[in-house]
Inverse folding.
């Protein structure tokens, strides 16, 4: 079935560094959603993308809807300690609108 | 506006028992979805309810069921619990769609179920 592959699985960075992560699929998606999950909490919607090529920002976060419609990218600039968490991409399966999630990218910030 | 609330937050059950989890969506949201999150499988879709009707269903056995009430609150039930049912169960609500479907979902904090 459709799957979303996120990479990297985990990242260890220094505070202040920029971060890039991506999400790919073998199928075309019409919507890409990016979520962040903190420990003990549910995922929080960060950015939603609806159009191929679209670039959307939310503060220090920027996400892009790939022009092939099979990938999406999330960048975080000037990382801070509260950016620690798991970042998920998600999107609706075309056939029946069920939302599927990638396995996540776990972001660690080194002291 | 209050967020999605889930009760209880933590639950410990033994194999063979059944469990009921509750979710109250954001006021005005009529769609409620349930997900199971485990370290191995990640977030997996269980089912979605809209206006008291199940609109979509994931690939889970019939032991997993749900319902939605007229006030949009939802419950999910798992019967004959197995060890593998230990997971974080997340509920998400979606705002009313006016025009284009947006697929935006707002999650609750989850119920951590441990089956022993």
């Amino acid at each position: 079935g459709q799957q979303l592959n996120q990479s990297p699985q985990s990242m260890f960075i220094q505070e202040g560094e920029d971060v890039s992560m991506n999400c790919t699929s073998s199928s075309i998606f019409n919507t890409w959603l990016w979520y962040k999950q903190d420990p003990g909490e549910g995922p929080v919607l960060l950015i939603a993308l609806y159009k191929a090529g679209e670039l959307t920002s939310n503060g220090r976060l920027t996400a892009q809807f790939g022009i092939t419609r099979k990938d999406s990218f999330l960048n975080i600039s000037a990382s801070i300690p509260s950016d620690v968490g798991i970042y998920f991409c998600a999107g609706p399966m075309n056939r029946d609108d069920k939302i599927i999630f990638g396995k996540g990218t776990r972001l660690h910030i080194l002291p | 506006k209050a967020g999605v609330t889930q009760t209880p937050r933590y639950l410990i059950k033994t194999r063979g028992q059944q469990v009921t989890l509750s979710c109250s969506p954001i006021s005005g949201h009529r769609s409620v979805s349930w997900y199971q999150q485990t370290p191995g499988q990640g977030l997996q879709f269980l089912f979605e309810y809209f206006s008291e009707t199940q609109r979509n269903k994931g690939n889970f056995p019939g032991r997993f069921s749900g319902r939605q009430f007229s006030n949009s609150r939802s419950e999910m039930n798992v019967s004959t619990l197995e060890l593998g049912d230990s997971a974080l169960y997340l509920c998400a609500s979606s705002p009313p769609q006016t025009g284009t479907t947006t697929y935006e979902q707002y999650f609750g904090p989850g119920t951590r179920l441990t089956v022993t």
Chain B has a mean pLDDT of 93. Chain B touches chain A at residues 4, 33, 35, 42-45, 48, 56, 58, 90, 92, 100-110 (CB under 8 Å). DSSP finds no helices and eleven strands in chain B. The first strand of chain B starts at residue 5 and ends at 7.
